[in-house]
Amino acid sequence: MKTIKLLFGTLLIISVVLFACKKKDPDVIVLPPINNPTPTSSISTFFDNNLESEIQTFTINPSTDYMVTGINGTTLFFNANTFEDMNGYTVSGLIEIEMIETQSNKEMLLWNRPTTTTDGQLLISGGIVYVNVSQGGNQLSINDNAPIQVSVPSDNYIAMDYFTGSEDNNGRFGWELDDTDTVTTNTADTTNWNPNGGGLFTFDFTIDSIGWINCDIFYGTGDPLTGVQVELPDSFNGTNSAVFIYYSNLNSVASLYDYDEDGVFDLGGWSYATPIGQNISFIVISEINGSFYYAIVNATILNGHYEIISSMDMMGPVTSTDIQNAINAL
């Protein structure tokens, strides 16, 4: 639709110029362009700050067996001598464990951790975990023969797959199925049950490398799929805005992208699709010259869905806390 607007504007300018060329007197005076400063944005900092605020840090002695429990109920169990330095030597002395955990697609959105594979397939998440280990600021690794044992609480007894996550060169985060590792669904051990995390069941797996892990299943109901595009108001585009699909009835979230920075976001091409008929919210988060803006627009996905976010939909300027509160209220 922006292409149509641009074409109409171009034809209008040509018409005006042709008309002006026929006039002999007075001469047409062309004013110099106004040099407005280029708007700046650090929208990625919004997500980085959200992630940093969620880091839980534990100090342990790696020479003995040890277990830590996160505020959302995720447990990490370490055998003695699990950790090595980057030269492969077993470490001694106190070490620092960093963990980030959630089972909420609202937090996944606020962290820019969408539940989609690197090739655009929608996932339904049972929970994501990030683990990092260091000693005195030096990165450590995990002994292949003594991986970390992880339990993620769940209210659902369902089979899950094991996915690892990373960013590509464009900063797009996605998940890859890892067939070499498995997730086992078990009844929770209520003797060590964490009331903060809850859950009658657990997704159990091991971690043998530093990074992001996601317990997921593919969305595979057989429902028809469609591409989705979202058009933002003028001045809002891929340089200063992030756009998401928040699924009301699935523990899922998808990111849309504007690689050509024209203000029209999509899932990464029409081969990247989402289920028709899902009740969702389009979430826009923007930061321009230090000011935050956001929009939440509810919709039902239609075939060939094209959503126009108007300037009236954009709320702001607001604080980053306002955005967090609005998303958590969904």
Which short descriptors sum up this protein?
single chain; 330 residues; mainly beta; Chondroitinase Ac, Chain A, domain 3; Immunoglobulin-like; 2 domains; seven-stranded antiparallel sheet; five-stranded antiparallel sheet; 4 helices; 14% helix; disordered N terminus
Secondary structure layout:
Layout: H1 2-21, H2 43-53, E1 56-60, E2 66-69, E3 75-78, E4 83-84, E5 95-102, H3 105-110, E6 123-135, E7 138-139, E8 141-142, E9 148-154, E10 161-167, E11 173-177, E12 184-187, E13 201-207, E14 211-218, E15 225-226, E16 228-231, E17 241-247, E18 253-256, E19 264-266, E20 274-275, E21 279-288, E22 291-300, E23 305-308, E24 315-318, H4 320-328
Q: Give the helices and strands as they follow along the chain.
A: HHEEEEEHEEEEEEEEEEEEEEEEEEEH
- Strand tally: 24
Measured as a percent range, the helix fraction is: 10-25%
- Might you state the CATH topology name of the largest domain? Chondroitinase Ac, Chain A, domain 3
CATH architecture of the largest domain: Sandwich
Shape: globular
What is the CATH class of the largest domain?
Mainly Beta
Structural class: mainly beta
Indicate the proportion of strand residues: 35-45%
Kindly give the count of domains.
2
Low-confidence stretches: 1-38
Biggest beta-sheet profile: 7 strands, antiparallel
Enumerate how many helices there are, as a single number: 4
Distance between the termini: 30 Å
Mean pLDDT: 86
Cα Rg: 25 Å
